[in-house]
Please model this.
Amino acid sequence: MLNQFSRTQLLYGAEMMGKLASSRVAVFGIGGVGGYVVEALARSGIGAIEQNEGIFRGLQLLFHQLWD
Model:
């Protein structure tokens, strides 16, 4: 039976698709590149995707102290 991941399963095999389906991935920063990464992970069959876009103010200040 065909499903949304049947073509990916032909490429990777049933065992790898099982591993992907049981995997969890965290992506921090869903801006320009992160959005495409999350989309690609979802299309590949990853079981769970945690997304975090929050910017920690302390890290932001540290970045500006180092590079400004």
About this structure: Residues 6-67 form one domain.
